[in-house]
Structure formats: C-alpha cells, structure tokens
Amino acid sequence: MARILAFFVVSFLGSFLDPFAPAQAHAESRHRFHVVIDPGHGGADFGTVAVNGGVRYSEKEMTLLLAQQTAAQLRARGISADLTRTEDKDLALGPRTEMANRLKADIFISIHMNSTQTPMITDAEGVETYILNNTTEASSKSLARLENSVLGPDERQGDTDVALILRDLRLDANLSESKRLACLVQQQVVAVGQRSSPHAISTRNRGIRQALFHVLLGAEMPSILVEAGFLNNAHDRDLILDPRSRRMLASAIARAVENFRDTKNTDIAAETLSRCKVR
Ligand SMILES: [Zn+2]
Fold it and tell me: How far is the CA of 105 from the centre of ligand 1 (A)?
C-alpha cells in the first residue's frame, strides 16, 4: 500500500519536476502559427455569379484567387498556411473545418464574395467580416444542435456535464478571439479598398456581423468568414482580379493575422475588443 502511495506521490511531484519540461516549453515557444484558409464554394457550387460584358465571373474562382495569394502572403511572414482546396473541386462544408481541426490550426478563415439580391443593382460595395452567431436564445439552441451533429465520436461519448462545460468554455473563448480577429481583418482590408476606391471608407466598411454560418460551426479555433467585396460590383471585382490590388488585399489579411498572433493576451488585445462593434 505504502509503495502504491509512494508511486502516486512521485508521479504527482513528477508532473511538477518533469526533467523534460524545459524542452517542452521550448518546443511550445517554437510552435509555428498555423492558418487554414478556406476558399468558399468550388466544383458544381459556383457561389454567386455575375455576368458583365459577356464575361461570367463566379465566386468560387475569385475566392480561390484571393485565398492562394493570402496563403502566399502569410508564408512570406513565416506563418504556415494551408488551403482547404487548391483547385476547382466540390468540397462539402464539414471537411473544411475538419481539416483545420486535424491540423490543429490556430485560426480558420473562410473567404467569400457578396452579391446583392438583385444582380442588376451594382452600386453596393465593401467588405463584411462575420463571426458565428450564438447570441440569441433560438440561435444558440440550433447552434448547440448543429454543434452536436459535428462532434467526433470521442467527444460524443464524453457528453458528460464536464465535457459540455469544457466545450462551452472553449466556444466562448473562441468567440471572443474570433471577434478580435474579425475586427483586425476588417480594419486592414477596408483600408485597402479605401486607398484604391473613390468612395469614402464608410461605404467600404460594412462592419463586423454575426450569422449562423455552417462552415464556421465545426471550427475548434477562432474562425471568421470574410465577404471580401461584391461580385456584381465592378470595383470590388477588380480589386481581386487585378494582381496588384489582390496582393494588397491578401497582404492586409496576412498583416491582421500577424497582429492577432503578436498581440494575443496583451492590453492591445483587450483594447481591440473594447473598440470592436458587432452589428
Ligand atoms: Zn459564398
């Protein structure tokens, strides 16, 4: 009995006096920030489509262009980046965040383009960044239901109170960080549009919004969805089609990600959050 007790005492102390602890801490500090970028739609799913001067533009192509450039800009900053798809192919929503979870990504960014209900109205422009909505009673219920449906078998088995509380805490922490990421990205991306647009920043900045986007639901890390402009607006479309402004947009997202990583748990992070208004 004494021997068993001693074993537990040693094991307990050992967890504090772990000879490998410094090595682990060092490995932790060398952890490379990892981003998964998700180009919206693909394959048979074109997303929104706009026709101008006999040319057909589809959201799935624009999102891939911007996502590829964003990954390149992140890598140029020493941040590792993967795309959920690198070509025009069908990809369901679930596997997009599953990939980010599997790779233990630090953040997940889904890239989309907006369009107006009436495609002929082409004067709507600007950028919106979305975070997952879990604020209202009705949506949090449906969120919970959907969240449960995307749980892995291990998590479903552990559906005890403690497991549920831990998951809620994780979701809350991720939502707060998602909001901070959304604000940093929105601020940077809107600034690019402003420099190359004759319009005032107020029309470019359509704000941070919340919605129950299914593609964000399974993410186990801070996640946002960027509507990087209106596909049926020539100015917004050209921002992505023109290689130079596309690089500026991508570099704006990468700069925001770098800032997000570098200010985590600092006073600056708290200040970003306090100034961040969600519509
Ligand atoms: Zn879309």
Answer: 22
